[in-house]
Structures are given as structure tokens and as C-alpha cells.
Design brief:
The protein is of the alpha/beta class and 288 residues long. The chain contains twelve helices and twelve strands.
């Protein structure tokens, strides 16, 4: 098998069709189909199911794609670094919303002081998306909250954090400060979207205590959630760092649930097959 076969396979997976992959690579469609067939024959596996003239990647194909993507990207990284070692220096970083808002700017500033010629490209998204970006080699290092879901990811925990329950100042919970879990059953909840680490932790803890929460509102915007809570449209749970200013300004109130704490870890992650440059290792060290 050659690198060309792997590039064609990755292109088909990304483009969705043999025709689109051929156009992307400037290769005739029969040559693309032949390369896929040769891969399947060589490894003795079925990479795609061909149903109704459409390709559907198999479980074996998904597993193979993990390796193929990183072999192709590693080769491209080598080409770029070796050919342009003195001219190109880029580190691609992804961070969850909490980390991106409050911690990442300081890390990037410290990194730029160490490597003034390096360019830092940053993506801010929820933790689930950041993990996917690391797996697909869209970024080199991810900084996430909560749980790592894929065995291909190497995790370096670097800080603890906690979530806080919040409500409007005129809400009954604001005066009680600490409530029983059963009191939440009749509340309207305004929560982050599925895929955010805070939402995942909150849902799992609630389910472990026998309470399934169905939110009235879901939002990717922390500001929208805080404003809705401030207007007494419901209660929420958010990272302390994201609501610290609003609490200090007494725009909203926080309360606790008897016997329950919402703690989590911040972690730096990278693909286990990723070649980390010295600068990338130094960035990881800064986070730790």
C-alpha cells in the first residue's frame, strides 16, 4: 500500500462520494474506485457498504480512517516543517468556552513570549467539538472541560473547576441558599447545549440521583442563559468562572443542592499518534 491509497481513502471519507473525491484530488473516478478496491483487497476488510449507489463507511472503515488520517497528516506536517523549517511556525490550539474565555489568553501570551516568531491559531468551541478537532488533526492541542471520550486521545489534567447553580435574585432558592434535590423537580431549566462538558456533568449527576432534567431552554450562549436566569425564567448551572462577574455584581444569586457538588477537571489533550514539536510540548507545560 502507498501513501496515495491512504490519501484517496481519506478524501473519499471527507468528500462523501468517489466523484467528489476525484475532483478534489484531480484524479479520474475509476482510479479512485480502484484505489479503494485495492485497499479492501490488501487488508481483507470492507471499508464501505455500497447501498443505493451511495457509500456508507463501515466500522472497520472508521477504525482504518483513524490511522489513515494521521498518517497522511503526519506526512504533510513533515513536508511543511522540513521544507519551511525557518519560515513557518504555527501551533493550532482549541479550547472549550470557559477555558477560552478565562485561561487561554494568558497561556497564549506566555507562549508568544517564549516563541515570538510562532503563530498561534485558536478555535473556541464546546468540549465535544474540540475533541473531534483533535481527532481529525484540525488542531494540535485541545484544552477541554470534563470527560475525555476517545481512547486515541492522551489527557493531561491541569486544573480543577466547579459548576454553580444560579437563579434570579427574587427566586425562592436565592434566600434558601441550600436546597433539597427534590425541590428541583418543578423548576424550569435553562442549560447549555448537549455536547458541552458542563451539561454532560450536570445531566450525569442528576441521573445518578434519579432525576432526569428536560430543559425548557438550551443555548450555546452563556450570556443568553445568564440574562434569562436574571429575568427569573428558570434556573441554571454554569461554570463558576463564567458567572463570577455577574455574581459579584449581584445580578443573580447562587444556591447549593444538599449533598451534591459539581466538580470537574480541565485537561489538555492531543492525539496519541501526534508528533509533538518542542514548542507544542512547551505549551502543554505552560498549562500544567
Amino acid at each position: 500500500m502507498t501513501l496515495r491509497h491512504l490519501k484517496i481513502f481519506v478524501a473519499v471519507c471527507e468528500a462523501g462520494t468517489v466523484t467528489a473525491a476525484g475532483e478534489k484530488l484531480y484524479i479520474a473516478q475509476p482510479s479512485v474506485s480502484l484505489a479503494i478496491s485495492e485497499l479492501e483487497d490488501y487488508y481483507g476488510i470492507k471499508l464501505f457498504d455500497r447501498i443505493a449507489k451511495r457509500l456508507h463507511i463501515t466500522e472497520a472503515g472508521k477504525h482504518f480512517l483513524q490511522y489513515a488520517t494521521h498518517i497522511v497528516n503526519l506526512f504533510e506536517d513533515m513536508e511543511k516543517e522540513v521544507k519551511n523549517f525557518d519560515a513557518i511556525g504555527v501551533i493550532r490550539i482549541g479550547a472549550s468556552i470557559t477555558i477560552g474565555n478565562y485561561l487561554l489568553p494568558g497561556y497564549v501570551l506566555a507562549f508568544k513570549q517564549m516563541y515570538p516568531q510562532m503563530e498561534a491559531k485558536v478555535i473556541i468551541d464546546n468540549s465535544d467539538k474540540i475533541q473531534q478537532y483533535v481527532l481529525s488533526n484540525r488542531i494540535d492541542i485541545g484544552l477541554i472541560e470534563g470527560i475525555v471520550h476517545n481512547s486515541y486521545l492522551v489527557e493531561h489534567k491541569f486544573r480543577e473547576d466547579n459548576l454553580v447553580m444560579i437563579c434570579a435574585n427574587q427566586h425562592a432558592f436565592a434566600k434558601q441558599k441550600k436546597i433539597e434535590l427534590s425541590q428541583l423537580s418543578k423548576e424550569c431549566f435553562i442549560l447549555r447545549e448537549s455536547g458541552s462538558a458542563g451539561r454532560e456533568i450536570f445531566d450525569s449527576i442528576m441521573m445518578a440521583h434519579g432525576l432526569e432534567i428536560s430543559p425548557s431552554w438550551e443555548s450555546i450562549s452563556t450570556q443568553a442563559i445568564v440574562r434569562a436566569v436574571k429575568e427569573n425564567l428558570g434556573v441554571s448551572v454554569l461554570p463558576y468562572l463564567l458567572v463570577k462577574d455577574s455574581l459579584e455584581r449581584q445580578e443573580i444569586s447562587k444556591f447549593e443542592i444538599e449533598g451534591i457538588e459539581f466538580k470537574r477537571n480541565f485537561s489538555a489533550i492531543h492525539h496519541r499518534n501526534k508528533f509533538l514539536t518542542e514548542s507544542a510540548k512547551d505549551f502543554l507545560a505552560l498549562c500544567k
